[in-house]
Specification:
Layout: E1 6-11, H1 14-25, E2 29-34, E3 39-41, E4 46-48, H2 51-58, E5 63-64, E6 83-87, H3 95-99, E7 105-109, E8 117-118, H4 121-127, E9 132-139, E10 149-156, H5 163-188, E11 203-204, H6 209-212, H7 220-229, E12 236-240, E13 243-253, E14 263-267, E15 270-274, E16 279-287, E17 293-294, H8 295-301
Length: 315
């Protein structure tokens, strides 16, 4: 049996914190944790630590929060760190950081590579209507999620999955997969890997506000996937009489309902909005600065009559 591994970890959101917790609970020593700087969060916009930092401090781990990795001098523990485990860190690692551990860097990526390389694989899997996704444990190289794959774990996509629900399941699968990978490395001293088929690669670019805007000319099933993919963040939205309305939960309905964006029904069951094909029954929604409300409560405070229409967005 090889010597016990000593690790470093790089990650930021709850997805990564789940992996770090799994590694620590499995008994591995983590010498150093990298995470992004504290960011303003919540209604008060006060600086708050990432999920990874909060866990690391709770477990008594050393933490570094560089604003940038360009020109970063690696801490003088090179020969003591075997592997750098990376999960949703949010910064591109320079070659010096990849070369820092004795056995390189291993990434926990939330897709079945080479499908959905990039920053937002979970949302893109939902937007595309994929029936399954998963976790890839990958040996990192200088490319964008291009390194050889060490292990994969398939995770089915449920019919009504949201980005949040799927992320939780993928995080658990990622934690289990990295612990199994580290155990195999510790036992044998090596890891088999397989190169990716670059010709089969698809890319999951960053998600921003423009991607979350609902385009009512799309069919109802497509819009439904947008709503679910961006729940909870950044949140699918539309505008009604110039006011931003975030749509949290909805259901697609088949049929012919008239002009896209028109509200053809508004009652306690929800707002029925015509789409390019079919309609979307909006069950939970939220005005900017307001609370997330069921349709009945929303309409009690903000009456909407049938015949009103959401503002059009082209494209």
């Amino acid at each position: 049996m090889a010597d016990a591994l000593r690790l470093a970890f790089a990650g930021t959101p709850p997805f990564a914190a789940t992996a770090l917790a799994g590694i620590l609970d499995a008994g591995y020593e983590v010498a150093l944790v990298f995470t992004q700087p504290d960011r303003p969060r919540g209604r008060g916009h006060k600086a708050a630590p990432s999920a990874v930092k909060a866990l690391a401090l709770e477990r008594g781990l050393a933490v570094l929060q560089p604003v940038t990795l360009k020109g970063l001098s690696m801490p003088p523990i090179k020969n003591a760190v075997d592997v750098l485990v990376v999960a949703a860190y949010g910064l591109i690692l320079p070659q010096a950081m990849l070369d820092w551990p004795r056995r390189g860097a291993i990434n926990i990526h939330a897709s079945l590579l080479p499908r959905w390389r990039g920053a937002a694989p979970i949302q893109h899997a939902l937007l595309a209507g994929d029936k399954e996704t998963g976790i890839s444990i990958m040996q990192m190289d200088a490319g964008l999620d291009t390194g050889p794959v060490i292990a994969r774990a398939i995770v089915p996509v449920a019919l009504r999955d949201t980005g949040g629900a799927l992320t939780v399941r993928l995080a658990a699968a990622g934690a289990a997969a990295i612990v199994q990978t580290l155990a195999a490395l510790e036992a044998s001293g090596r890891l088999a890997s397989h190169p990716q088929d670059a010709a089969a690669a698809t890319y999951a670019g960053k998600i921003g506000r423009p991607q979350a805007a609902i385009r009512w000319n799309d069919d109802a099933a497509t819009i439904d996937r947008v709503v679910r993919a961006f729940n909870p963040t950044p949140g699918a939205f539309a505008t009604l009489d110039g006011a931003t309305i975030k749509i949290w939960t909805a259901e697609p309905t088949s049929g012919s309902f008239g002009t896209a964006g028109a509200i053809v029904g508004a009652d306690a069951n929800g707002l029925l909005v015509a789409c390019g094909r079919g309609a979307l029954l909006v069950r939970e929604l939220q005005r900017a600065g307001g609370k997330r409300l069921a349709a009945a409560a929303f309409l009690a405070g903000h009456p909407i009559v049938a015949g009103a229409a959401f503002d059009a967005i082209s494209g």
